[in-house]
Amino acid sequence: METENDIESRKAPFQELLALAASAAGDADLDSFMRAAWSAFVEARPGLRERLEELRFLAELESLREQGRIPEA
Asked: Which of the pair, 23 or 50, is modelled with greater confidence?
Protein backbone atom coordinates (compact mmCIF):
# COMPACT_ATOMS: atom_id res chain seq x y z
CA MET A 1 0.00 0.00 0.00
CA GLU A 2 1.27 3.46 -0.88
CA THR A 3 2.03 5.71 2.07
CA GLU A 4 1.69 9.47 2.31
CA ASN A 5 5.51 9.76 2.21
CA ASP A 6 5.55 7.83 -1.09
CA ILE A 7 3.00 10.21 -2.55
CA GLU A 8 4.88 13.29 -1.30
CA SER A 9 8.24 12.04 -2.62
CA ARG A 10 6.71 11.55 -6.07
CA LYS A 11 4.93 14.89 -6.00
CA ALA A 12 7.87 17.03 -4.92
CA PRO A 13 9.94 16.80 -8.16
CA PHE A 14 6.81 17.45 -10.20
CA GLN A 15 6.00 20.57 -8.20
CA GLU A 16 9.55 21.85 -8.46
CA LEU A 17 9.62 21.40 -12.23
CA LEU A 18 6.22 23.04 -12.60
CA ALA A 19 7.36 26.01 -10.51
CA LEU A 20 10.48 26.36 -12.69
CA ALA A 21 8.39 26.23 -15.87
CA ALA A 22 5.97 28.83 -14.55
CA SER A 23 8.86 31.06 -13.53
CA ALA A 24 10.54 30.70 -16.93
CA ALA A 25 7.26 31.61 -18.62
CA GLY A 26 6.84 34.67 -16.44
CA ASP A 27 6.72 37.05 -19.39
CA ALA A 28 4.21 34.95 -21.33
CA ASP A 29 0.50 35.41 -20.84
CA LEU A 30 -1.40 32.76 -18.89
CA ASP A 31 -3.19 31.36 -21.94
CA SER A 32 0.10 30.75 -23.76
CA PHE A 33 1.59 29.06 -20.71
CA MET A 34 -1.46 26.83 -20.21
CA ARG A 35 -1.57 25.85 -23.90
CA ALA A 36 2.12 24.92 -23.79
CA ALA A 37 1.68 22.97 -20.54
CA TRP A 38 -1.34 21.07 -21.91
CA SER A 39 0.50 20.32 -25.14
CA ALA A 40 3.51 18.97 -23.24
CA PHE A 41 1.21 16.85 -21.04
CA VAL A 42 -0.57 15.35 -24.05
CA GLU A 43 2.62 14.78 -26.04
CA ALA A 44 4.16 12.88 -23.10
CA ARG A 45 1.30 10.36 -23.21
CA PRO A 46 1.16 8.41 -26.48
CA GLY A 47 -2.40 7.86 -27.63
CA LEU A 48 -3.98 10.42 -25.31
CA ARG A 49 -4.65 13.00 -28.01
CA GLU A 50 -6.36 10.40 -30.19
CA ARG A 51 -8.45 9.14 -27.26
CA LEU A 52 -9.56 12.67 -26.38
CA GLU A 53 -10.49 13.31 -30.02
CA GLU A 54 -12.47 10.07 -30.07
CA LEU A 55 -14.34 11.04 -26.89
CA ARG A 56 -15.12 14.49 -28.31
CA PHE A 57 -16.39 12.92 -31.54
CA LEU A 58 -18.61 10.46 -29.66
CA ALA A 59 -20.02 13.29 -27.51
CA GLU A 60 -20.75 15.30 -30.66
CA LEU A 61 -22.55 12.32 -32.23
CA GLU A 62 -24.63 11.86 -29.08
CA SER A 63 -25.54 15.54 -29.11
CA LEU A 64 -26.64 15.32 -32.75
CA ARG A 65 -28.73 12.24 -31.95
CA GLU A 66 -30.40 14.01 -29.02
CA GLN A 67 -31.25 16.92 -31.34
CA GLY A 68 -32.75 14.48 -33.85
CA ARG A 69 -30.28 15.55 -36.53
CA ILE A 70 -28.98 12.00 -37.12
CA PRO A 71 -30.78 8.72 -36.49
CA GLU A 72 -29.70 6.20 -33.92
CA ALA A 73 -28.39 2.94 -35.40
From this structure: 50
Name residue 52's amino acid.
L
Decide if pLDDT at 62 tops 70. yes
2-45 pLDDT, tens per residue?
677 766 666 778 888 888 888 888 777 888 888 988 999 999 99
Q: What contacts 65, CB < 8 A, 6 or more positions away?
A: 71, 72
Q: What is the 3-state secondary structure (H, E, C) of the chain?
A: CCCHHHHHHHHHHHHHHHHHHHHHCCCCCHHHHHHHHHHHHHHCCCCHHHHHHHHHHHHHHHHHHHCCCCCCC
Report yes or no: 25 and 36 within 8 Å, Cβ to Cβ: yes
